Amino acid sequence: MASLINPVHSPTRTSQFSSLYLSSNKISPSFALLKVRSLSSRASSLAFSPLPEAVKPLPAVGFSGKGLKFSGWSQQLRRRVSVELLPVAKAAAADADGAEIEIADGYGKPTKSFSEKFPFLITGFFFFMWYLLNVIFNILNKKVYNYFPYPYFVSVIHLLVGVVYCLVSWSVGLPKRAPIDKEQLALLTPVAFCHALGHVMSNVSFAAVAVSFTHTIKALEPFFNASASQFVLGHHIPLSLWLSLAPVVIGVSMASLTELSFNWLGFGSAMISNIAFTYRSIYSKKAMTGMDSTNVYAYISIIALLVCIPPAILIEGPQLLQYGFKDAIAKVGLYKFVSDLFWIGMFYHLYNQLATNTLERVAPLTHAVGNVLKRVFVIGFSIVVFGNKISTQTGIGTAIAIAGVAIYSLIKANLEEQKRKAAAVSAS
């Protein structure tokens, strides 16, 4: 180190600058910014950092009886001091996750996030996206069938896109993949098989008849659920629930008798779909694996895809190779054909995932009402978009069926809420 140049002797009484960095006097600011740092020894601590961390260490400072000597004006002087912070009225800080912390009366408490301040807006957004994605999927799906009537292959595409989406999500850790063992696989396989059967039969119905008519028939699903609960699982179904299903059966019957697009393939496949989804719900109750819903749905999609591939190859494979793909590309072009298949698969997966996420945010009663309204939206939009003509009796029958489903859902949700409260009371 070069010799001292122009040494400067400071008086014993330091200036305001030196008192800030060299003395151990207490500092009592009315407003301070506190930075929370995570340390190995404890979760977080408060540190006051007046200068950047990148400052180089200081050379030794020599003390004489009279004053301080500096080696040069170009060097910055910094010394860490212990600062005792007095309680402040209010300070802003940032925690380890970047969230703002409000400190009042000397105690820190995290401020509420937007979702915590306005939960109804977040829930409303989930419902909106669930409806929107479902409507888009149904409309785009039907448009594809107008020039590519191969529901088994399209069902495979739906599941394939969803599986790829899940694999990509797992690879980036959103969410983290839950491990699965042989016992869990055995529990999820029947659920996935019923899911695959119900999904394929729904698409066969969509390809054969109008979207509105398929959804009208699928309004009978609560009837099959109640029947399976009563006669398969041995659960007692109250008389009020059975009575609420009467309008559903009557309404679907009225709509079917005068539906202009009616054919037995569309009607029968929709009924098989109802039965398959009913048994899916039964097996789902037995397949409580402890996983989160996102991982469960991902595994179900993977197994269902493996179930759907063989019948698609056997039933539609020869036709697709001979003229199916060729005709579709000739009608709309290769780019539109591929993009349509991709987007119907993406919308199918996303609307199912949003439905699950919405169910986790609301009470069963709210979700039941939302599910009924979703069906009304799909039926209404499909009629408007495709210009399907329906008879007056079909319209009345559809309205009666939807009203019956709404009444059934309300009664069932109320009964489940009463059981939950009774169980909570007995447990306490």
Defining traits:
5 strands, mainly alpha, globular, disordered N terminus, 5-stranded mixed β-sheet, 428 residues, 13 helices
Question: What's the helix and strand layout?
Answer:
Elements: H1 16-22, E1 33-37, E2 45-47, E3 90-94, E4 100-104, E5 107-110, H2 114-117, H3 119-147, H4 151-171, H5 182-208, H6 211-218, H7 221-231, H8 239-258, H9 264-286, H10 293-332, H11 334-361, H12 364-386, H13 392-427
Parallel strand pairs: 1-3
Antiparallel strand pairs: 1-2, 3-4, 4-5
Helix pairs in contact: 3-11, 3-12, 4-5, 4-10, 4-11, 5-9, 5-10, 6-9, 6-12, 7-9, 8-13, 10-11, 12-13
Structural classification: mainly alpha
**What percentage of residues falls in helices of 4 or more residues?**
55-70%
Put simply, the count of helices is: 13
Order of helices and strands: HEEEEEHHHHHHHHHHHH
Instruction: Calculate Rg over CA atoms.
Output: 33 Å
The low-pLDDT segments are 1-55, 61-105
Question: What is the count of distinct domains?
Answer: 1
Distance between the termini: 77 Å
- What's the total count of β strands? 5
Q: So what's the overall shape?
A: globular
Main beta-sheet annotation: 5 strands, mixed
On the 0-100 scale, what is the average pLDDT? 75
Main β-sheet, spatial strand arrangement: 2-1-3-4-5
Strand content: 5-15%
